[in-house]
Every structure is written in structure tokens, then in C-alpha cells.
């Protein structure tokens, strides 16, 4: 049922109860965000002097950016390592990256006390600050992602000249993207290294930058599984299980290295004593390391689960959940501070922004040739 | 039995963490300052009588609004907040009691200064850590990173700024002393160079009185301008168990490592790219070099 409008294909919009809910939640979130800009953080959040960072920083920012790492990983796999068989998911992955980073920037606009001054990052420099580096990387990487994604748009509009220009600089762009991502994914970890006495030792580590980088790569790859799952369920694209199962083969390696180093650190530094001590930190640590690291390793190293639609999807969910739990544990739950539970307004903004992301993704899939060259068969199914 | 995080860090500080840090022996201190000569204050909790003259003098000089009850009567603030830069608190148990003064510690190596992405916090050569509100974007990283949780913000306002003690930097620049130490009638709070303050503190520790043999702030977080002596355990007075690590020294090597990361990633990516694309170039008549790489590979379909 694809309607051709010039070169832009209009696909049937997946308007069902689910999608209506997504729109409603997105609208609610935006409404609350506007309310927050007018009345301030005190009136809308449960943040306080003893808890300056809450849900928006630990979940939306730190986890959101981590989950978006698929964009640089897959781009590197395809363009740098020249593994062209993964090409079909490149566009969707880059789009997800672009959307995730846009959402992270939006979150920052909601979270900053002085959001109208976000541009100060450009004119006032402090090279000692991890956040300064992250700010710059995110700005630059957002530009890189937009350029990486632009061929899809030019393709759809049939603009030949810009397409040529972009294609000529594809490789430098990809290399810039990989470098910027490596920088800010690890620097998100560096950000927390300055809190040695405030984060519980089981979760604090001077190796944060390495841990953040590795878990982001794993969760970013897992995220591509989730995207394909979503696209196939919603739009009837084929679920590229063969290809995806090859891609996720890398995850046990990455998570395995992470697991070994983190456990080794635990024992070398003697921090395992806190595990023996029990209590909430020990329990959460075990949940994080088993559910978010070991389980995904098992899911993805067994060819049977890896090649099974449910197996691979569940494995992806566990990996993504593991990253989220890791960030929230370190930057919120086990960071010293006042008691905190997010207010409904904070939750509404978080949920709303996520829904906004879904809407953007769906719009792109609807209007743009996201998955290259749909075969007549695939088109017919739509 | 709970393990003290402080003891723990002492044992393991030189462990894996040190191993993992890029080898960069450069000091991270945002400004190199002569520690001995830096402006400093000594607070002796055994002398303080809790009159709160310092607290009132501070509010007056900084123009901070009073805390008021619903009918407009003045009240005592109960913690540092956006309207209170310094506060006197009382610790009391069955056998002992002691007042304690809180305010920004004006660290020698301030975490807040090193983390602020826009350089809104500045460590002056003379000692004070001051805030340039016209730069601040309100990320609140300073609040999270400060080991003493000193920076506070104006939550009730739509566009909040950070609020914290500025050590009366303007008065000090004119050769005057801060208002709090000036107001102190008992000499519990005195002002001078850091060396002078530490000398006095050491003298008192070995002299009469039941002093805990520790000068809080001498080494904590790499040393602070505000130093404390007391006859009670400092944790009772609400001080955090703070390791002696200068916090900016933890992050700075990583930040310096950034250039290395850029170099390695660019070189590595380029090398891998060249290697994996060798065959293509020979086989495909250079097609891949200029415009082929963003094309779907022939024969593959979605
Ligand atoms: S006590 Fe906190 S706010 Fe004051 S200088 Fe040190 S880090 Fe900065
Ligand atoms: S809240 Fe303001 S002063 Fe504090 S770190 Fe952020 S920009 Fe700097």
C-alpha cells in the first residue's frame, strides 16, 4: 500500500491504540516540560540540595547516550571493517543514534537550571571538566550523525549533488564519529570518577571510563536488535535474524572482558568485602552483574538462543537493562545524597521524551527509504 | 561489621586505580597556589559559644534574605542553602556537646572548579573559590562533585543560580578580613595565612585541652583553606569521611588522555579501513574510493 509521492514513499502509519498512547504521552511530557520551564525545577521535581541529579541525568542522559552507541559501532563495522553484510541495518541504527542524542540534548534543556545558556559551552571553556568534553562531543557528534544520515534524505528527495558530496566524505565522517563516540562514552564514566567518596565502592571505580565504553558498545549493539524487532513488528519488515545473530556474536566478547576486569578489580582492591557484607548494594551489584552481564553473555553465546527471535530479543533487553541499571546504580541509587524518588513530572518528561523518540523513528520509517531498496515483495506487504 | 570507606580507600588507593590511570604525573590543580600563603581560617569548636554572630554577619554582607515563618518573623535557618552560606550547628549527646560552623571549605584543589564545564567557578590565587554567575549554565555538577556538598541552588526560582560562600573575596582584595571572622567575639574563628592557621592549630593540639589529634582540612580532599580542630570526633560534627585524594587529580589524567584517544582512534580506524579495503580498490577500478561506500552492496537486499 505504499504510495509514491515523488521519490518519498508514504507507508501506512501504524495508527493503533498503542501509537495513540505514544502520542498522548509525548504530548503530556512536552506539556510538563513547558510547565517546568515556566515554574522551575523546585516546583516540578523532587531534586534538592542534597540530590542535585536525579532521573533525568542518570537515566535519560547517561543511559540514553550509552544505548545510542550502536550508531558508531555498526557504522564502524560496516564502513571501517568493511563487513558489508550488515549494511541493511546501518541507516536505522544511525537514525536511532541521531534521535537518542537529540533526546539527550532535549533532556539537558529540561534539566539545566539555565537552559537558555546552553550555548555557553561553546564560548566558555574549561578543559578540566569532563562535562565540557561531553558537551562538545555531543554537539559535534550530533552534527556527524545528521550528516551520516543525510544521504537517506537526499536519496528520498533525489538531490544528486549533496548526495555526491556526502558520499565523498563518508569515511572521514565515520572515523570522526567513532572517535567522538569513544571520547564521550568513556568520559561519561570519567564524570563519575571525581566522586570516590560519594559513590558506594561496589559501584565506584577509577575504571569507569573503560566500563562505560565497553557496556555502551554491548548495549548499543543490543539496541539494534530491538530496533529491528520494532520495525518488523510494526511495519512488517523482515526481522533480519541471521544478520543480527552474527552481529550480537560480538557482545559476549565485549561483556566478557568487562565482566572479568570488573570482578578482578573487585578482588584486587578488596572491595569484595562489601559483597560479603550484604545489604542493598551487594544485592544490586549481583543483579546488575548477573542479569545485565552474565545472562546476556549466555543468551548470545548459545547459537540456539541467538538464532531464535525470542532468544535474541530477550538477550537484547537484558543487555540494555544491564546498562541502564549500571548507570542508575552509580549516578543515583548508590550516590550519597538525600532520599529521592522521581516526581510524576520527572517521570512524565522521561516517558514523554522516549515516546517522542518513537514518533520520530516512526516518521522516518514512514517517509524515508530507511531500509535500502525494499524488494517488490517487501513493498507489497506494506 | 561495616567497613569504613575512608580506611578502605587508604588501603586500596594505590591499587588498581593507580594502575589504570594514564601515567601523567602532572598536578591537576587548576591554579597552582602557594599553599602556605593562601588565605585561611581556623575554627576551634572548643571555643565557639554558638552566638551565631558570624552567621548573621555573613547574611548581612552577602545580602542574603532571612528565613522567615509564615507570619514574616525571622527564623533560624537549619542548613546551608541558597539563602545561607554559613551556619552554626550544635552536636549534643549525653556526655558532650559542641558547636560547628559550616561553609565552603575553599579547597586547595577544588573539585567544583575542575568540573564546572563553563568555568563559572574560579580558584583565586589568594585562596577564595568564587562563582561567576554570568557564566553558569546550571548543570549542578559542582553540587554533585563537591566532597562537602557545599554549593546549593535556588530551587524555587525558574532560573536558579548556585549559592555558596565566597570567602568575602572582595573584602580580602581590599586587605580586610572576612565578615564572619571579624564578627566572632570569642576568637573561635580566626583568619590568616594557611601556614599561620596550621601552626596555631598544631600548637593547641599539643597544649591543654582534650583535642582530637587531627586537623580537619589539613589533608582532606587534598587540603582545604578552612581548617578545624575539635575535642569531638569530626564525623560527629557532620564532616564526611573524606579521603586525602585531591579530587581533580583523579579526572585530569583522563582529560589529558583525550588527545591520545583521538590519535589512537583515528589512526586505528584509518589503518583498519585501508587494510579491509585493499582488495576492493584493486578489483573495482577505484569505484569505492570516491563514491561507492555509502551504496548498498550489489546483490544484497533488505
Ligand atoms: S568545599 Fe566544595 S564548593 Fe567549596 S571549594 Fe571545595 S569543592 Fe568547591
Ligand atoms: S551549576 Fe553552574 S557553577 Fe555549577 S558546575 Fe554547573 S555551570 Fe558550573
Report on this model:
The complex is a heterodimer of chains A (382) and B (302). With 382 residues, chain A is an all-alpha fold. Chain A has 2 domains: 30 residues; 287 residues, Formate dehydrogenase/DMSO reductase domain (Formate dehydrogenase/DMSO reductase fold). In chain A, 73% of the residues lie in helices and 2% in strands. Chain A has 18 helices and 2 strands. Chain A has a two-stranded antiparallel ribbon. In chain A, a hairpin with a 2-residue loop joins strand 1 and strand 2. In chain A, helix 7 packs antiparallel against helix 9 and helix 9 crosses helix 10. Chain B has 302 residues and is an alpha+beta fold. Chain B has 2 domains: 219 residues, Alpha-Beta Plaits (2-Layer Sandwich); 31 residues. Chain B contains 11 helices and 11 strands. Chain B has a 3-stranded mixed beta sheet. A two-stranded antiparallel ribbon of chain B has the order 2-3. Chain B has a two-stranded antiparallel sheet with strand order 4-5. In chain B, strand 2 and strand 3 form a beta hairpin. The radius of gyration of chain B is 26 Å and the shape is globular. In chain B, 39% of the residues are buried. The C terminus of chain B is likely disordered. Chains A and B meet through helix 1, helix 2, helix 4, helix 7 and helix 8 of A and helix 1, helix 2, helix 4, helix 5 and strand 8 of B. The structure holds iron/sulfur cluster (2 copies).
Amino acid at each position: 500500500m505504499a504510495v509514491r509521492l515523488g521519490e518519498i514513499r508514504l507507508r501506512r502509519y501504524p495508527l493503533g491504540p498503542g501509537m495513540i498512547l505514544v502520542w498522548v504521552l509525548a504530548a503530556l511530557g512536552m506539556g510538563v516540560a513547558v510547565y517546568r520551564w515556566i515554574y522551575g525545577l523546585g516546583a516540578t521535581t523532587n531534586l534538592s540540595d542534597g540530590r542535585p541529579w536525579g532521573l533525568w541525568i542518570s537515566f535519560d542522559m547517561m543511559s540514553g547516550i550509552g544505548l545510542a552507541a550502536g550508531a558508531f559501532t555498526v557504522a564502524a563495522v560496516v564502513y571501517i571493517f568493511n563487513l558489508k553484510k550488515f549494511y541493511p541495518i546501518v541507516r536505522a541504527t544511525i537514525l536511532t543514534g541521531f534521535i537518542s542524542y537529540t533526546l539527550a540534548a532535549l533532556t539537558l534543556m529540561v534539566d539545566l537550571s539555565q537552559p537558555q545558556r546552553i550555548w555557553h559551552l561553546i564560548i566558555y571553556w574549561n578543559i578540566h571538566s569532563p562535562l565540557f568534553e561531553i558537551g562538545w562531543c555531543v554537539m559535534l557528534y550530533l552534527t556527524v550523525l545528521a550528516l551520516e544520515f543525510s544521504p537517506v534524505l537526499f536519496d528520498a528527495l533525489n538531490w544528486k549533488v549533496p548526495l555526491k558530496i556526502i558520499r565523498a566524505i563518508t569515511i572521514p565522517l565515520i572515523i570522526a564519529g567513532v572517535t567522538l563516540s569513544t571520547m564521550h562514552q568513556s568520559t561519561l564514566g570519567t564524570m563519575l570518577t571525581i566522586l570516590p567518596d560519594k559513590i558506594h565502592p561496589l559501584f565506584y571505580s577509577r575504571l569507569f571510563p573503560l566500563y562505560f565504553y565497553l557496556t555502551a558498545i554491548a548495549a548499543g549493539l543490543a539496541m539494534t536488535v530491538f530496533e529491528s524487532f520494532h520495525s518488523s513488528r510494526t511495519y512488517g519488515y523482515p526481522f533480519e535474524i541471521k544478520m543480527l545473530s552474527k552481529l550480537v556474536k560480538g557482545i559476549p566478547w565485549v561483556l566478557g572482558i568487562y565482566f572479568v576486569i570488573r570482578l578482578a578489580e573487585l578482588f584486587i582492591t578488596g572491595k569484595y568485602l562489601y559483597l560479603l557484607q550484604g545489604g542493598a548494594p551487594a544485592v544490586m551489584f549481583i543483579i546488575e552483574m548477573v542479569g545485565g552481564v552474565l545472562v546476556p553473555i549466555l543468551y548470545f553465546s548459545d547459537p540456539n538462543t541467538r538464532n531464535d527471535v525470542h532468544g535474541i530479543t530477550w538477550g537484547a533487553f537484558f543487555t540494555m537493562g544491564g546498562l541502564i541499571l549500571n548507570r542508575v546504580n552509580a549516578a543515583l541509587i548508590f550516590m550519597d545524597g538525600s532520599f529521592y524518588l522521581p516526581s510524576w513530572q520527572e517521570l512524565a518528561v522521561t516517558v514523554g521524551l522516549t515516546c517522542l523518540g518513537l514518533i520520530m523513528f516512526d516518521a522516518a520509517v514512514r517517509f524515508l527509504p530507511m531500509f535500502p531498496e525494499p524488494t517488490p515483495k517487501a513493498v507489497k506487504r506494506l | 561489621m561495616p567497613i569504613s570507606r575512608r580506611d578502605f580507600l587508604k588501603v586500596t588507593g594505590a591499587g588498581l586505580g593507580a594502575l589504570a590511570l594514564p601515567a601523567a604525573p602532572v598536578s591537576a590543580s587548576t591554579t597552582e597556589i602557594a599553599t602556605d600563603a593562601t588565605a585561611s581560617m581556623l575554627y576551634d569548636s572548643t571555643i565557639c559559644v554558638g552566638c551565631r554572630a558570624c552567621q548573621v554577619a555573613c547574611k548581612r554582607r552577602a545580602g542574603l534574605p532571612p528565613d522567615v515563618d509564615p507570619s514574616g518573623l525571622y527564623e533560624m535557618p537549619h542548613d546551608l542553602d541558597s539563602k545561607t552560606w554559613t551556619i552554626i550547628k550544635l552536636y549534643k549527646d549525653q556526655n558532650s556537646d559542641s558547636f560547628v560552623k559550616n561553609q565552603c571549605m575553599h579547597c586547595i584543589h577544588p573539585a567544583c572548579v575542575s568540573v564546572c564545564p563553563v568555568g563559572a567557578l574560579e580558584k583565586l590565587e589568594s585562596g577564595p573559590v568564587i562563582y561567576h554567575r554570568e557564566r553558569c549554565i546550571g548543570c549542578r555538577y559542582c553540587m554533585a562533585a563537591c566532597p562537602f556538598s557545599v554549593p546549593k541552588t535556588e530551587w524555587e526560582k525558574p532560573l536558579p543560580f548556585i549559592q555558596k560562600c565566597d570567602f568575602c573575596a572582595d573584602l580580602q582584595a581590599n586587605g580586610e578580613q572576612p565578615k564572619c571572622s571579624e564578627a566572632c567575639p570569642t576568637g573561635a574563628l580566626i583568619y590568616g595565612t594557611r601556614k599561620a592557621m596550621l601552626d596555631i592549630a598544631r600548637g593547641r593540639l599539643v597544649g591543654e585541652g582534650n583535642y582530637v589529634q587531627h586537623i580537619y582540612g589539613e589533608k582532606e580532599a587534598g587540603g582545604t583553606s578552612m581548617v578545624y580542630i575539635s575535642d569531638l570526633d569530626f564525623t560527629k560534627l557532620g564532616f564526611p569521611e573524606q579521603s586525602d585524594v585531591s579530587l581533580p587529580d583523579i579526572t585530569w589524567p583522563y582529560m589529558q588522555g583525550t588527545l591520545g584517544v583521538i590519535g589512537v582512534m583515528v589512526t586505528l580506524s584509518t589503518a583498519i579501513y585501508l587494510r579491509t579495503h585493499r582488495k576492493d580498490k584493486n578489483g573495482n577500478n577505484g569505484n569505492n574510493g570516491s563514491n561507492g561506500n555509502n551504496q548498498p552492496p550489489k546483490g544484497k537486499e533488505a
